[in-house]
């Protein structure tokens, strides 16, 4: 239950970032950087009476059903939560901050800020085995069946929207939209890789028993024990190996420093861990 609450908190944080980046940075400059939000910006420009948030909600239905059927109901449920959170937040922004204007005349700066904010938010959402809806669902399907990274899958799905943006808003804005899609897709892969980076730690210490208890009781992780013989003195030593998050590693490093400043520790970065105690999503 605690993990589920944490998941939905992260999903909401990601949704807030996507809504803020879209409404305050991309939409005022008519930058359709892919996705349903980009399509909504294009339609809103053609028919201003149709609100961006409402358009996004209405275009999600078919893709929701597609995601639920192909990827599964759990993915679909979390995606619905994210999508309606984003659309709802944008509708609220439209009521609280109507007719938002570009912050300044530098479209490139606003593009970068908008895409960075959206990209981080989308990376957080994808990392929770969900999507923000729209073309993200198509990207997730491509990722599942063709083993292409989420970022590259999204690039393939969003290129149609950027071409439409070029025809509606002109070549200048279209180029910015294409640049935004490329930055966004690259950033999403980077965020996902960063969030999934773990530390593989190997420890040789005279306080091995205390370290093992700390790993299991405090960090709530397991460990594997190997035995190695040193080449210098032929003494056999116990090698404790474990895989930890970056935060857990910092805790363990401080604990070892406090009890044995002569401990020998090697650390490797691991980009993905599957199996008991870790996710398969």
Automatic annotation (TrEMBL):
One CC-aspect GO term: plasma membrane
Membrane topology annotation: Multi-pass membrane protein
Primary location class: membrane
Transmembrane regions listed in the UniProt entry: 7-25, 31-50, 62-92, 107-126, 146-169, 175-192
Subcellular location: Cell membrane
Pfam families linked to this entry: DUF2179 (PF10035), YitT_membrane (PF02588)
Segments forming domain DUF2179: 221-275
Keywords: Cell membrane, Membrane, Transmembrane, Transmembrane helix
PANTHER family named in the record: UPF0750 MEMBRANE PROTEIN YITE, UPF0750 MEMBRANE PROTEIN YITT-RELATED
The name this protein goes by in its record: DUF2179 domain-containing protein
Protein source organism: Clostridium manihotivorum
């Amino acid at each position: 239950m605690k993990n589920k609450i944490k998941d939905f908190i992260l999903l909401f944080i990601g949704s807030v970032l996507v809504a803020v980046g879209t409404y305050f940075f991309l939409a005022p400059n008519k930058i359709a950087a892919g996705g349903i939000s980009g399509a909504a910006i294009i339609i809103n420009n053609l028919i201003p009476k149709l609100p961006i948030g409402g358009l996004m909600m209405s275009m999600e239905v078919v893709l929701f059903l597609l995601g639920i059927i192909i990827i599964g109901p759990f993915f679909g449920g979390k995606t619905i939560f994210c999508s309606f959170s984003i659309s709802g937040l944008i509708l609220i922004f439209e009521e609280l901050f109507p007719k938002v204007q570009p912050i300044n005349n530098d479209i490139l700066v606003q593009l970068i800020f908008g895409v960075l904010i959206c990209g981080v938010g989308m990376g957080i959402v994808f990392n929770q085995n969900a999507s923000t809806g729209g073309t993200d669902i198509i990207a997730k399907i491509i990722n599942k069946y063709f083993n292409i990274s989420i970022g590259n899958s999204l690039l393939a799905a969003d290129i149609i929207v950027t071409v439409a943006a070029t025809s509606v808003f002109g070549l200048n804005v279209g180029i910015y939209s294409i640049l935004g899609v490329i930055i966004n897709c690259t950033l999403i892969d980077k965020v996902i890789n960063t969030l999934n980076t773990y530390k593989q730690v190997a420890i040789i210490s005279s306080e091995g028993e205390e370290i093992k208890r700390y790993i299991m009781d405090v960090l709530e992780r397991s460990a594997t024990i190997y035995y190695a013989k040193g080449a210098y003195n032929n003494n056999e030593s116990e090698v404790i190996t474990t895989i930890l998050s970056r935060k857990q590693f910092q805790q363990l490093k401080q604990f070892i420093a406090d009890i044995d400043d002569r401990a020998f520790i090697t650390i490797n970065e691991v980009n993905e861990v599957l199996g008991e105690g870790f996710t398969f999503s």
